[in-house]
Recover the amino acids of this structure.
């Protein structure tokens, strides 16, 4: 397991700078505006209890993959703390990419679960892309695939809360091929 950590760290150090622009890392207002411009995401802003936003998540992989991002958690439109996202995966994968991610909390229970310290999405939890792209997933709940044609076309798949949370991603750049299994882990630090 120690070798896995060293390999993952090496991959992140080498490939992550290629995918993450330093000036973009903590621009929360621009990232929130991008998500608010998507008709698919707008209802979640109006009806959620809170959300966590990660302006830039960098992901890199060479068989073993990893991703990292820092964000803020909001409740009632006000920042309540900071969060870190760590993703690990293993499988057929190569490349690097950067994306923004937002996680909506449907109610107080989901918000409290997320900020409880160490929250984790399992392999069956998926995110919906709000920009042009395609994605597929296979988890313990079965296989699925989705495509999107961009935020202004209105052709995105309908999304609802799953276990009190809904996740959306916005691709920023990079190139990655992957057929891998992994999960995201979040940590929270109150202000």
């Amino acid at each position: 397991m120690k070798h896995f950590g060293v390999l993952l760290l090496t991959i992140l150090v080498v490939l992550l700078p290629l995918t993450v622009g330093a000036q973009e890392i903590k621009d929360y207002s621009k990232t929130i505006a991008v998500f608010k411009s998507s008709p698919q995401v707008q209802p979640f802003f109006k009806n959620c209890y809170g959300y966590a936003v990660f302006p830039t998540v960098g992901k890199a992989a060479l068989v073993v993959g990893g991703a990292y991002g820092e964000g803020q958690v909001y409740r009632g439109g006000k920042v309540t703390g900071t969060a870190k996202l760590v993703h690990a995966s293993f499988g057929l994968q190569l490349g690097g990419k950067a994306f923004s991610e937002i996680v909506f909390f449907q109610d107080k229970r989901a918000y409290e679960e997320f900020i409880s310290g160490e929250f984790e999405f399992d392999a069956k939890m998926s995110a919906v892309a709000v920009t042009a792209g395609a994605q597929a997933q296979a988890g313990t709940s079965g296989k699925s695939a989705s495509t999107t044609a961009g935020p202004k076309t209105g052709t995105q798949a309908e999304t609802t809360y799953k276990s009190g949370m809904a996740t959306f991603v916005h691709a920023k750049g990079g190139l990655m091929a992957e057929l891998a299994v992994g999960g995201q882990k979040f940590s929270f630090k109150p202000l």
